[in-house]
Structure formats: C-alpha cells, structure tokens
C-alpha cells in the first residue's frame, strides 16, 4: 500500500504574517484515487492546493508530489500534474482546437501526436462540430469538460481540480464526473475541491478542512457512519459549524 502513495504531506503549514492559513496538515493520497478536498469558504483549500502544485512555498512541513519534494522540485512537479480551476482554464477567445493545441504545445508534444489525440478527444466529447468555434460561445458544462480534458491531455500522474463544476446543474456535474472516473481508471490521481456534496459522495475518500486543519478524512460511507449522518451534507455541516473563520 505504502509504495503507491502519490501525494504525501506531513505537518504542511502556510502562514501569511501571523495568520495560519494551512495549519499542520498531514495526509496521503494513493495512485488512481479520487480524493475530495472539502472545507467551508476560507478553510485553506486553495492555499494548500497551491503548495501541492508547486505554485507557493510552504512555511513549514513536508510534502512530496509524484515523489518530488515541493521545496526543491517544483518544475518536475508542474510537469507531472494537470490543473484546472474555475478561475484559470481555457481562453474564451481561442477556438476549441486552438485551446487544445496551445496547452499541448506547452508540454512539447509532437505535432502528429497532438493532431491524433485532438481528433480522438473531440470525438469522445462529441465536440467535432464545435472544433472551430470560439470557446466563449460554448455552454459552461461543455467548457468544463473540455478544460478537464485539456488538463489531462499530457497524461499527468495527478490532476488538481479546484471547484471544477461551479455553476452547473447536478446532471451536468454527473457527466463531468464520468470523465473523472475514466481518468482515475487509467491511473490518474484526482485531487478535487468542491462545495457540492453530491460530488463528495462520488469520491473514494474525502477530507474536510476547518480553519486550516483537516478535521476528518475517510470514505464517504465511513464519514457518514462516524458522524451518525444520513448524508455528506450533514457531515459537512456538523464540521463547518465549528469554523471560526468567516470568509464568505
Ligand atoms: N495571499 C494571502 N495573504 C493573506 N491571507 C490570505 C492569502 N491567501 C489566502 N489568505 C487567507 O487564507 C485563508 C484561506 O484561504 P483559501 O483561499 O485557501 O481558502 P479556501 O478554503 O480555498 O476558500 P474558498 O472555498 O472560498 O476558495 C483565508 O482566510 C484567506 O483570506
């Protein structure tokens, strides 16, 4: 079990001045796992995720991503991961095809590889007829699916998703999650933050952050059992009620 660990953190901490945004968090994620990273607004999820992606240095503690130390190997980490967030994803004023080409180009893939894989991807997403349309003209749910597919185009070991399905209905979210399951089945580890509790139920394991700390971490079934809760919503509310930060 231990040697399939792909994300490992130990007492990982980030301070901004006197404020402890991420407070000594320790957890492991396994290869191919779908790991939900939950917490109320301001709990510290984005700050933690930025450290794991090599975008921000911790104040203290340790972490390895795909075996790379987050203090020393940030470039290697960036090559091993994919990233998608609501705020940073596709260029609205480029076409579907141009977006794919642009991101694939960053990873130095050959033209032939990009061309073949793009054709396959457009077919899988049923976007063949939209290939030359501006991304800005697509419905949000389609954009999200495309953004996810682009984030894993270079076949990273881990993909980090920061609230990837914001603003769409449960059916569209479910379709998005089918893509997540496919990626996980191929061995890609999925690390996902969400505010939607239906999505929490879809994860293999879920951690819940409160005021910078991880207060609970287990499978959705075990969490519901431990908190005597009928749903993940109830588990989340029981923990979020304890929060003293008010960041909404
Ligand atoms: N650069 C910064 N300087 C000072 N404080 C910061 C900085 N970045 C984040 N914070 C604070 O750290 C805390 C954690 O923020 P973070 O964005 O990580 O939370 P979050 O769990 O991702 O919240 P949300 O769900 O709203 O995105 C918040 O109180 C935020 O105001």
From TrEMBL:
InterPro entries: AAA+_ATPase (IPR003593), ABC_transporter-like_ATP-bd (IPR003439), P-loop_NTPase (IPR027417). Residues 7-236 form the ABC transporter domain. It comes from the Bacteria. The keyword ATP-binding applies. Keywords: ATP-binding, Nucleotide-binding. GO terms for molecular function: ATP binding; ATP hydrolysis activity. SMART domains: AAA (SM00382). Transmembrane segments: none annotated. Coiled coil: none annotated. Pfam families: ABC_tran (PF00005). This is ABC-2 type transport system ATP-binding protein.
């Amino acid at each position: 079990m231990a040697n399939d660990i792909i994300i490992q953190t130990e007492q990982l901490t980030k301070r901004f001045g006197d404020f402890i945004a991420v407070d000594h968090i320790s957890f492991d994620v396994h290869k191919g796992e779908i790991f939900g990273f939950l917490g109320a607004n301001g709990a510290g999820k984005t700050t933690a995720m930025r450290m794991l992606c090599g975008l921000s240095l911790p104040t203290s503690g340790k972490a390895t991503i795909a075996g790379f130390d987050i203090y020393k190997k940030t470039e290697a980490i960036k090559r091993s991961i994919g990233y998608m967030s609501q705020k940073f994803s596709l260029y609205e004023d480029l076409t579907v095809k141009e977006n794919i080409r642009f991101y694939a180009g960053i990873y130095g893939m050959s033209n032939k590889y990009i061309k073949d894989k793009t054709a396959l991807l457009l077919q899988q997403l049923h976007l063949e007829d939209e290939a030359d349309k501006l991304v800005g003209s697509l419905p949000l749910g389609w954009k999200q699916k495309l953004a996810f597919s682009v984030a894993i185009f270079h076949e990273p070991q881990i993909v980090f998703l920061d609230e990837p399905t914001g603003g769409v209905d449960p059916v569209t979210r479910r379709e998005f999650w089918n893509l997540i399951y496919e990626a996980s089945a191929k061995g890609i580890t999925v690390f996902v933050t969400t505010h939607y509790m239906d999505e929490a139920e879809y994860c293999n394991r879920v951690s819940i952050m409160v005021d910078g700390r991880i207060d609970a971490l287990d499978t959705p079934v075990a969490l519901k059992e431990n908190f005597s809760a009928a749903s993940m919503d109830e588990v989340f509310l029981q923990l979020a009620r304890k929060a003293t930060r008010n960041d909404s």
